[in-house]
Amino acid sequence: MEAFPWVEILKSFGPAVAVIVFFVWRDWQRELHLTSRIEVLEKYQKETLERLVEKSTVALTQSSECLKWIGRVIERLARVCPKMAGQDCEKPEGL
Question: What tens digit of pLDDT does each residue of 2-25 get?
């Protein structure tokens, strides 16, 4: 960072202008630091959200597959044991 010519401003325009220029310069520097910090935080939030969405998508996909599998199992059980459909079960052959 370059040194700001405070002495020349003070000599040319007086202490009031030098003070105003100092505060404007200080706030400008602070804004630069805050901007870079905000960018880092936004990047972190974006990456975190992307990972969470990806994991949630995988979990939802696995859950859907499990529910489909459970549905198929229940359909097979209903065919083997009609009692599940409100009828009496018959003893399977061989038992």
Answer: 666 767 777 777 778 878 888 998
Q: What's CA 58's distance to the chain center, in Å?
A: 15
Domain total for the chain? 1
Taken in order 11, 16, 17, 22, is the CA torsion positive or negative?
positive
Residue 18, class by beta-carbon neighbours within 10 Å (0-12 exposed, 13-18 middle, 19+ buried)?
middle
In a domain, 32, yes or no: yes
Q: What is the pTM of this model?
A: 0.51
What is the C-alpha to C-alpha distance for residues 48 and 54, in angstroms, rounded to an integer?
10
Question: What is the domain range of residue 45?
Answer: 12-85
